[in-house]
Amino acid sequence: MNDIDILLKIFEYLFDNKIIRSQKEFAEIIGESKVGWNDIKKGKKKVSIIHLRHIASRFKEFNRNYIFMGEGTLLEKSEINNPPLVEENVENSKNSDKSLLKRIEYLEMRLKMSDEK
User: Fold this and answer.
1) CA atoms of 73 and 70, how far apart (whole Å)
2) Mind giving me the DSSP string for the chain?
3) What is the pLDDT along the chain (117 residues), one digit of tens a residue?
4) N or C: which end of the chain has fewer CB within 10 A?
């Protein structure tokens, strides 16, 4: 199994289980733009270790041997019988979004304050 096949399998799992909603969202997870992800799928761009690390660090339920070597099953054995709750991943995503929004608001306030000086 090559690296592109591994990423496609991971994408399919995440999309089919409604953990992600779009290819753009997956691209962001692996640290790519939507165009970059499309280039990877077409073989115009290589999968890097960084892409795989992003997945491994975000989704603990995935088997590291599968992510990095294409060996074994996608899910860790303990996760096969107890798959992660989609709601838990959605909630984590919402919390991350809230944190980003607060950071943006803070930076906008700082920018406004510096413009007023």
Assistant:
1) 8
2) --HHHHHHHHHHHHHHTTS---HHHHHHHTT--HHHHHHHHHTSS---HHHHHHHHHH-TTB-HHHHHH--S-SB-HHHHHSPPPHHHHHHHHHHHHHHHHHHHHHHHHHHHHHHH-
3) 899 999 999 999 999 999 999 999 999 999 999 999 999 999 999 999 999 999 999 998 899 999 999 999 999 775 545 555 444 555 555 556 666 677 677 677 777 776 665
4) C
